[in-house]
Write a sequence for this structure.
């Protein structure tokens, strides 16, 4: 994974309609947070959006690709993130629609996690 801060600036501008975002470096890439939840990853100039069973089919139909990486045993591993569709790269309104779906997926995932005792 690789993160370019200039790409992070572009993401913040492209997704400005979502409100304030926080981008934090992680594992060579970066995570994009809104309201304290990760809804996207940034890696090598690609925006990877959080998916679940509800928004993954829509992203697949729009030509998005799954986030994959080689595992230690050589098998390809996947994560619950899919690329921002190419049509949204030049259209901030479309990009924000996809990002909102990713934010909803992040909220659904967070709501399924049991609360940690204090």
């Amino acid at each position: 994974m690789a993160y370019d801060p200039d790409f992070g600036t572009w993401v913040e501008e492209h997704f400005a309609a979502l409100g304030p975002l926080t981008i934090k470096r992680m594992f060579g890439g970066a995570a994009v947070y809104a309201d304290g939840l990760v809804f996207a990853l940034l890696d090598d100039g690609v925006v990877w959006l959080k998916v679940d069973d509800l928004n993954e089919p829509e992203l697949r139909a729009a030509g998005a690709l799954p986030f994959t990486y080689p595992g230690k045993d050589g098998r390809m591993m996947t994560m619950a993130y899919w690329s921002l569709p190419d049509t949204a790269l030049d259209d901030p309104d479309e990009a924000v629609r996809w990002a909102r779906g990713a934010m909803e997926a992040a909220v659904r995932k967070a709501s399924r996690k049991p609360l940690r005792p204090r």
The mean pLDDT is 91. The domain at 5-110 is CATH 3.30.1460.30 (Yope Regulator; Chain: A,).
